[in-house]
Amino acid sequence: MHANKVLALVLLVFAPLWFVLHSCGQELSSQPPAEATERAEDSTPYLSHQRHLHAHNRKHGTSAPDEKRFYTTRPSEVLLPLPEEKDAFVFAVFGDRTGGPEDGVDVLADAVRDVNLIEPDLVMTVGDLINGYNRTDEWMLQMKEFKTIMNTLLCPWFPVAGNHDVYWRPLNDPDRPKDQHDEHYEMHFGPLWYSFLHKNCNFIVLYSDEGDPESGEKDFSNPMLQRISDDQLRFLRAALERGRECDHQFLFLHHPRWLGGGYGEDWKERVHPLLIEARNVTAVFAGHIHRMRSDPADGIEYVTLATVGGHQESKVPQAGYLHHYHLVTVRKEQVAMAAFPVGEAMNVREITGQLQAETLALLAQRPEVRGSIRLAAAGPVPTALEMTLRNPTSRPVDYTLTPLSRDNRWRFAPDHLHGTIEAGAETAVSVSASYLGSGYDDAFEDIRIAYAQEYLAPTTRYQIPEVQSDVPMEVDAVLAAEDRPNRALLLDGDGDYVRLDPAQVPLPQGPMTLECWFRATQFASRVGLLAKTEVSDYGIFVSKGNPVASLFLGPAYRNVQPAITLNPEQWYHIAMVYDGASVAMYLDGAEIGRTLVEPGMVRKTNDLPLFIGADPSRDGLPNSFFHGQIDEVRLSRAAIYPRSFQPQRRLKPREDTVFLYDFDQRFGTLLIDRGPLRRHTHLQGDAMIVDVSP
Length: 694
Description:
There is one protein chain. The protein contains nine helices and 44 strands. By secondary structure, it is an alpha+beta fold. The chain has three domains: about 85-350, Purple Acid Phosphatase, chain A, domain 2, CATH 3.60.21; about 365-475, Sandwich (Immunoglobulin-like), CATH 2.60.40.10; about 480-690, Jelly Rolls (Sandwich). β4 (about 90-95), α3 (about 105-120) and β5 (about 120-125) form a beta-alpha-beta unit. α3 packs parallel to α4 and α7 packs parallel to α8. The protein is globular. It starts with a helix and ends with a strand.
């Protein structure tokens, strides 16, 4: 039977009951009592705060779907109410919600609150409505959570399926349905693809996670599984034909397949030509990548949304890394779009790939400081700090540079600098630093440079988050005495670490030894002790108390992972040794594991920092923090332990030492490198230097 006839029969038989029983769907009454909606959010059970409560207008009237306006080739039993038809209108688009209930759900509720104040005709989503990646029971709870909040909207809302909404986990679960959560989605959210008409506009929803129809495999990074099926393509052709006389046609899906890459070329080769041929496709909306961008092509707006409660890195919020929603104002011959975080609007079309890349380049850079502060025995020597500031972008950049210290005995002239750097240019600035104190007491602190930038786009000033960098300091030899009481680095496991930039770790190819003493307060599920790893280089981990030494040689990591569990509150010496033919691990001087490798293999390097007490992400940021004390960290350009040995409690520098931090002495946050290269570094976060615990 034709899909439209089936729909008509379902409407005839079930529509009267649906108005009574549709408890999980949207409210349909066109004139609900005012008192019933005065504080609708009071009944929302999933929120961790009560900031969303406010008086608002009545819910918008809706119409029951009929075959003239509603179309699908899917057998879903969910009947989606349609908005009343009027002239020019506004609709909203929500990005990915996937996130924790105390975070993502609250952000979603904030967006619902804002949109209720604006009162658009309808709200569209672009998928990833729930956390998903689970089995039926948990999926059902998350579905109800999402719908409960969304159903407080004054207007109807329309779902799009994302990977988090349909992927089943675990993958090897014998109870996993062939099509994973497809059936659950259609039972509770709506058809996987459908279209509807509103005010002479056609809204088309597509499904971008069909996967392999035979095996049921779904993978958004495999181009072969990111192809539109023949069934859905036929639907799309028919839906576009239904909207051929409309003022506009809008498409919605989860994955921005037009970006190519892991999505392959299917969109470009088979879908985009259909949209051009239709001649009235105005815009296509997607999400998934958790950042905004605009990629217009052939007269069609391709718009990617960031998040409305989903995981958000917030790298450069004003350049599209933020929680937001789009408002789209539709008139017969034009469409306006704006992105709205709380309290402000953004220019959707300005967030191009180029703008995003340029703001990230600004975020990554630091002022280039020439020279250093010399720490002499009598105190810091007055110095003029010469700095070069660069603008690597195609737009002007305003900057503010501020020297600062927690030690108020420092004096700077000037105390801050403002200026503008034209596109592609650089400028030189100078700040003099002098110190009013004498010697070095426990209150002494070193200097940092705070650098704030604003990217001046045609319509918006994009504020780049302030970054801070350390001012280089050189320590006179008389101050670097080694007869100090034994002290250690104390980290609390929550953002504390020591960072060594790549230039501070000049380790050539060939043999090496990485070692330290440590005493953990507790072991988390993933813990970086000494790490420079990111599908490359080397590190020592003590996740869950299980020591692992990793060295990337040739095509893969060569790991040493003995079946040993370490105890908290106990001091250990650990060493990873590579001698050119094997990678070995020693614990308290005893060999506990060795992995043989082919001689002469090349270590895969990276430009990431080495972290003491953490592990670098691919962006060079610390994570997997260590909680406890670390002492005597030494990296050597040699395999200095060829066999079991008696570890020294206080290590000494050698000719082959790349660095040695014994943490016995500091100047503010400055840590002394006892090695011959004298590459001093700084404490980060709330890291402290304390007397060694017994």
